Amino acid sequence: MAQAGNTELVDAFEQFFRNYYDNEIKQLAQQYPNEQRSLHVDWQDLYRYDPDLADDFLNQPEQLQRYAEEALRLYDLPIDVSLGQAHVRIRNLPETETPEIREIRARDMNSLVQVHGIVRKATDVRPKIEEAAFECQLCGTLSRVPQSSGDFQEPHECQGCERQGPFRVNFDQSEFVDSQKLRIQESPEGLRGGETPQALDIHVEDDITGEVTPGDHVSATGVLRLEQQGDGQDKSPVFDFYMEGMSVDIDEEQFEDMDITEEDKAEIVRLSSNDDIYEKMVASIAPSIYGYDQEKLAMILQLFSGVTKELPDGSRIRGDLHMLLIGDPGTGKSQMLGYIQNIAPRSVYTSGKGSSSAGLTAAAVRDDFGDGQQWTLEAGALVLADQGIAAVDELDKMRSEDRSAMHEALEQQKISVSKAGINATLKSRCSLLGAANPKYGRFDHYEPISEQIDLEPALISRFDLIFTVTDQPDEEKDKNLAEHIITTNYAGELTTQREQMNQMEVTQDEIDEMTDQVDPEIDAELLRKYIAYAKQNCHPRMTEAAREAIRDFYVDLRSQGTDEDAAVPVTARKLEALVRLSEASARVRLSDTVEEHDAERVIEIVRSCLQDIGVDPETGEFDADIVEAGTSKSQRDRIKNLKQLISDIEEEYDEGAPVDIVLDRAQEVGMDNSKAEHEIEKLKQKGEVYEPSTDTLRTT
């Protein structure tokens, strides 16, 4: 502590306010006490004015805040204005005073620190009594008792008649302040290798209450305090930390933890000007997995994402890309998901069976955090992944009612919650990367792929890109794959041996040569910084040539559906997907314009995705309904014709339409026997036809 009297410190703060915050104090005086009750002070300003005073504020925040508020009260203002209860709130502490929540230790007690994280829970704002006025019910004398943060204190005896009560709290004479409790959890981008995120409770009072909601990324500044674990007789010698919040600011900055140096920037710009930047990027995604260049390119585009547009009428067009990998087991889908989760500057990973709808969106919980009386909202995985990527593995293993929770998050990018009397809307501006297996565990090459995807059409249609990953024997490809896997394992063996064993017969050069083959082209840490830098600084717009290429592709596809009985080839959702993808492609080059070759690159990806899943195998034409509605047009026509056929035949027979006659007639109109049987089975499952007796059918 600087050796100075109290008055000198008050004078020092007064001089500091005069030099740096004169306008802000005058504005506060005009709006006090209804609109504004605090003066927010930047610590860096205080440091520039007097480094010793700034350091003292970190070590003894309580005393110095009192002196600062005293200086505010003594500030020269018009006679009729008094800033009696105004607060001085410090923000923007130096890097040394912003530890991760997991790094907080006993030495930090009673000092001023700043933490970054996501608000996981927030209680309602409640009045808290600061000074209770007790009225003696026998003689009416008022006794005032200041209340600390512990238990509610009552007077021992009446100051008038000296009896020990009974007392009644006089609410009019007592002093109350708004209070709220927040729980802040570490941001996922700071965690590596399966660490469990840790949390810190923050108590905020007065005018900074009610400012944040679960899911917000915040910086909280305050004084660390201790709270004893256990209660009553079972008090423990172990204490918990909590923070008395001085200021809480919402971080608009997307990747506040990404520390991009000038050398990093130079390296990023140098990389972006390479002609083969896309190939380098693809080679940097999961290099241990062989092939899948197109899928990896799509994942790169998803990491960079398109530009989110805010329109003048207040509506918003999402820029985030959603992608689904459906494939045979053992094709490396989960490994690719895990790799993306590591590279994305902000990401949350969850797996099908282990996720419920509440865990994905938001849960209403009642626990000791809200004093056990009130319900509080707890943000789920899609909210925590806001401004990042949510990777959901085993999507097909989830219960369908849990999957339906994702619909709104994918398209509207928000989550509406109505639980336990809480109505709230949380933000979930994230990209979703999903992986799933086909309905029967593996693709059947004799069935249309669209029928083997066991996901609701409403969910599938929200994905911009859907890749099918089939595992078919192919001698040349299998040989390359085997070579790649063995090389990867061998490189791993050499690295482990070098670390664990002293004597080695293998030279360092040989080790380097082997590990080079499985090293990513661009280091993962640099790639994370590259993505963060591009998302912060690049907001490309389309050139006329790119707009024309996308428009022509879309119109050309749609024109295939102009015949009277043709299927609808694609919907407008695909057009938006093309725009988002081409913007992401421009961001990879750090370009401010989307060129024609960006459009052509993404048209190629979209065309191959449509070829895999959007083609009706019976007609060979694109049919949007396969994805959007779950049944192709030819299938719908077949079902309609079959129903008509059954109802025609049952008029001829009293007992109902015999199955063999239905099949014969279906064959006459060109319907395959096995397909007709399959559709009859489907109609029975839906309850549209039933069997009054064996081998006869009736329509409902």
UniProtKB/TrEMBL annotation:
GO biological process: DNA replication
Top enzyme category: hydrolase
MCM C-terminal AAA(+) ATPase domain sequence ranges: 277-485
Composition bias type Basic and acidic residues, residue spans: 674-689
Record bears the keyword Cytoplasm: no
MF terms in GO: ATP binding; hydrolase activity; single-stranded DNA binding; single-stranded DNA helicase activity
Keywords carried by this UniProt record: ATP-binding, DNA replication, DNA-binding, Helicase, Hydrolase, Nucleotide-binding
Keyword ATP-binding: yes
GO CC terms: MCM complex
Domain of life of the source: Archaea
UniProt-listed Enzyme Commission number(s): 3.6.4.12
InterPro entries attached to this UniProt entry: AAA+_ATPase (IPR003593), MCM (IPR031327), MCM_CS (IPR018525), MCM_dom (IPR001208), MCM_lid (IPR041562), MCM_N (IPR027925), MCM_OB (IPR033762), NA-bd_OB-fold (IPR012340)
Location of the region described as Disordered in the Swiss-Prot/TrEMBL record: 672-700
PANTHER family with a match to the protein in the record: DNA REPLICATION LICENSING FACTOR MCM FAMILY MEMBER (PTHR11630), DNA REPLICATION LICENSING FACTOR MCM4 (PTHR11630:SF66)
Family assignment from sequence similarity: Belongs to the MCM family.
Name of the protein: DNA helicase
